[in-house]
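Tutorial, part two.
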Amino acid sequence: MSANFHPMVYIIDYILGVIMWTLIGRVAMNIFQKEDSQFFFMKVFVKFTNPLLRIFKPITPEFIIQPIVPLYVAWFFFMIRFYLMPWILGYSVMGMLSFPLESEISRQIYQFFNSIKF
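Running the prediction step on this input gives:
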């Protein structure tokens, strides 16, 4: 955690990030699996994302095909993380928060691959 944000900011962003990536993962898994598949990971994606899809159903347009609806809902979480969070925190530049979840993951991947000697 490089910036000096209150820990609650990180917690909120991590939760929103995990929700967003879970919704995107459901769309990706749906390319290869049916929603009613018995594959463990697909059941988990469907179980955890169905309540969110029900919450967003009133604002989801009817013309969006069903397999893409989780991607549409993930877009809302992206917008909250990229525009609303910095605005609430008082930054004049949008995107100032720079996605702490993804930054931390990329930093860990970089350190892992940097430690491997080829």
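Helices lie at 7-32, 40-56, 69-89, 100-115. In part three we will examine how such features are distributed along the chain.
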